[in-house]
Amino acid sequence: MTYSPDLVGMPRHTFMGRPAFTGQTRSKTRSDFMSCFALHVAECEQTGRDGSAANYLMAYRMLVRYMNGRKLLPEQFTAEWLERYERWLLARGLGTNTVVFHMRYLRAVYNRAADKGIFSAINGNPFFRRHIK
Questions:
Q1: Which of 89, 105, 108, 118 could form a disulfide with 59 if both were Cys (CB 3.0 to 4.6 A apart)?
Q2: Strand blocks (E) in the chain
């Protein structure tokens, strides 16, 4: 394969200082919420938001325990799933404020991933009409 001389040495298209295309194609696997959550924790750590990173990490670890190594796909992320997770947290002896803590961070990661188009529940926002203090 040969390249025309006028294309050699041209800068790549960039977005926010990074190459827009790195030569890699998109993964064929669908995004799951667990990977979105882990990515958000890593972003907090990389940007020096240590307090936020610690809180998100605590919520992430509890979710990992609940999921027991399984992925959480968009069709599984429903209001009913949220209720089951909340009941599981309460059954572990966590207080109401602690459960609210975990649900708040879960909602924050969901909203951020949905805004970025990385993850969005199939049946709409599972937090719709769900009151988290």
A1: 105
A2: 14-15, 18-19
Question: What pLDDT sits at residue 116?
Answer: 82
DSSP class of 112: H
CA 62 vs. chain centroid, Å, equals: 14
- Rounded CA-CA distance 125/133 in Å is 18
Take residue 66 and report the two structure tokens written for it. 């609940």
Range ranked top by mean pLDDT from 5-9, 15-19, 37-41 = 37-41
Look-up: residue for tokens 């799951």?
Answer: 32
Which tokens belong to 104? Answer: 């708040």
Asked if 109 contacts 31 with a C-beta cutoff of 8 angstroms, the reply is no
What whole-number distance in Å separates Cα of residue 27 and Cα of residue 69?
20
pLDDT tens, residue by residue, 92-126: 999 999 999 999 999 999 888 888 887 777 777 77
Q: Counting beta carbons within 10 angstroms of the beta carbon of residue 39, is it exposed (0 to 12), middle (13 to 18) or buried (19 or more)?
A: middle
Q: What is the pTM of this model?
A: 0.70
